[in-house]
Amino acid sequence: MRTIKKVSLSKMIADEIKDYIKNQRLQEGDKLPSVESLVKQMNVGRSSLREGLRFLEAIEVIQVINGKGIFVKDANVYRIEAKINIENEKSFLLQMSEVRRALEGKAVELAVERITSEQLEEMEACLDRYQHFLETGKRNEASQADASFHQVLYRASQNVILEGIIHSIRDNLDEFWKNPFGIESIFDNSFPYHVTLLKALKERDQQQAMKEFSKLLDVVEQAIHRVDFEGRVSIPPESRGSN
């Protein structure tokens, strides 16, 4: 059986408004019904409606002008759907990254003192596989090696409660290693920080280990932020060539 996902009321409201724009063939600049009218038509509370409207406004589907009303900003159904999907995935991954900073960051802090020589060797082997698979274009295998690197790190904390908490959200964490947005190379730039993190662990340098772990997640979050609604990673101006 498939997993049943909970859908928030605000998401249902946003979807309903999106369908209304499509079915009424509204175009950019067309006016939507008033807040009072939408509340009555959908039989929802004003706060839930406003939350749904804020979501649609944030992804530039509508524009709310105080004193004038709600207007369509982007009537292209595909673009609307793509924006919602991408924005939902970005929001999920960024929030999960915050959780990683807390839980995995604590694992790094503990692992500096508790990691065994066998676990250090295991993490190094993971990185060797990770690099090999990246160089040979075997992206799925590279992602699996990356995930294994972090799983050894969790075990190296030698805190069964922390490891259990991390394991309990394993399915959510795995989204980082399943080619989010369908972009296989999205987190390639994080590889060097895996190397420097491992180096700091070997040297039992807690301060440096935490710095390298923070840099790793900084790169991950920057990549997530740069994904546009068509599922492409935009390249920052400073990273582009001069030609």
Automatic annotation (TrEMBL):
Pfam family, one: FCD
Gene3D superfamilies: GntR ligand-binding domain-like (1.20.120.530), Winged helix-like DNA-binding domain superfamily/Winged helix DNA-binding domain (1.10.10.10)
Ranges of residues in domain HTH gntR-type: 7-75
Alphabetical list of CDD domains matching this protein: WHTH_GntR (cd07377)
Top-level taxon: Bacteria
Coiled coil region boundaries: none
Keyword DNA-binding: yes
Keywords: DNA-binding, Transcription, Transcription regulation
Name used for this protein in its record: GntR family transcriptional regulator
Organism: Kroppenstedtia guangzhouensis
Record lineage: Bacteria, Bacillati, Bacillota, Bacilli, Bacillales
